[in-house]
Amino acid sequence: MSRIKIRAQQADGVTEVKALMRHPMETGMRKDQAGESIPAHFITEVAVFHGERTVMQGYWGAAVSANPFLGVRFKGGEAGDTVKVTWVDNQGGTGEGETTIR
Amino acid sequence: MNEQTQLAGISRRRFLGWTALLSVAVSLPARVWAWARPEAAFAATGIDAALTGLGGTPTVHDAIQFTTPDIAENGAVVPIRIEVDSAALPNVSKVSVLVEMNPNPMAAVFDIAPDTEVYIETRVKVAQTCNLYAVVEADGALYMQSRETKVTLGGCGG
């Protein structure tokens, strides 16, 4: 389980979530110095939760940049509410980060 | 697409990956709604096929604000932002990002919960100078906005 850096800030009824994940996001098309293919390794699913509610869930391909950044906004968050971001990759790895809305 | 037709058309390796994915999805909290990765769109190697995989040819809509750099020095990290004015284009349920000249143009798709903001920021790889597409689905119809980004250093190096 990899930890996700996450921040959530509320203003005028809209909460902005910013998350930074650590992940190589390998496309599977690159070769290493010995000429061997580097296997594809990328986040395939990512989700953002406000308490018990899923506010966004995404599917990614290998074209999302390494160490992905994700910014989303949703309505209805209050200061102190929990916001969580999770991911799953194509090799079964997972990541999670949680914070409270400021 | 139901499970049967999808299973019939995929390789063993992808099937294994898919079942692994399913088991992970099952172990995630139950509050995640059904996972429905548009595999056809992700597997497509051309922009037209990728759009077909998403459900057809989108029409241009001005309510979609698609922000990308005019020039990206590093194609491996190209920041993008998609915002939709929900008064002008309500009921957006999906937002997709496509990069025309990438080996697989489909980069990401986001399912947006009802009654919230349509706002996505992320960073994508862009192999070479080309058009980027923001495609949104609202009430079953596809709309888009495209922007050209010039790349001075390709995104395939990592």
What does this structure look like?
The complex is a heterodimer of chains A (102) and B (158). In chain A, the strands form two sheets. In chain A, strands 1-8-7-4-5 form a five-stranded mixed sheet, with no helix packed on it. In chain A, strands 2-3-6 form a three-stranded antiparallel sheet, with no helix packed on it. Chain A contains no helices and eight strands. In chain A, a hairpin with a 2-residue loop joins strand 2 and strand 3. Chain A starts with a strand and ends with a strand. Chain A is mainly β and 102 residues long. Chain B is of the alpha+beta class and 158 residues long. In chain B, strands 1, 3, 5, 6, 8 and 9 form a six-stranded mixed sheet that branches. A three-stranded antiparallel sheet of chain B has the order 2-4-7, with no helix packed on it. The N terminus of chain B is likely disordered. At the A-B interface, strand 3, strand 4, strand 5 and strand 6 of A face helix 2, strand 4, strand 6 and strand 7 of B. Strand 6 of chain A pairs antiparallel with strand 7 of chain B.
Topology overview:
The complex is a heterodimer of chains A (102) and B (158).
Chain A: E1 2-3, E2 5-11, E3 14-20, E4 43-50, E5 53-60, E6 69-75, E7 82-89, E8 94-100
Parallel strand pairs in A: 1-8
Antiparallel strand pairs in A: 2-3, 3-6, 4-5, 4-7, 7-8
Chain B: H1 3-8, H2 12-27, H3 39-43, H4 47-54, E1 59-60, E2 64-67, E3 71-72, E4 78-84, E5 92-99, E6 106-112, E7 119-124, E8 130-138, E9 141-151
Give unreliable regions of chain A as ranges.
Answer: none
Give helix and strand order of chain A, one letter per element, not per position: EEEEEEEE
- Model regions low in confidence, pLDDT < 50 over at least 5 residues of chain B: 1-7, 26-31
- Indicate the multimeric state: heterodimer
Structural class of chain B: alpha+beta
Number of helices of chain A: 0
The overall strand count of chain A is 8
As a percent range, the share of strand residues of chain B is 35-45%
Report the C-alpha radius of gyration of chain B, rounded.
16 Å
* Alpha plus pi helix count of chain B: 4
Work out the strand percent of chain A: over 45%
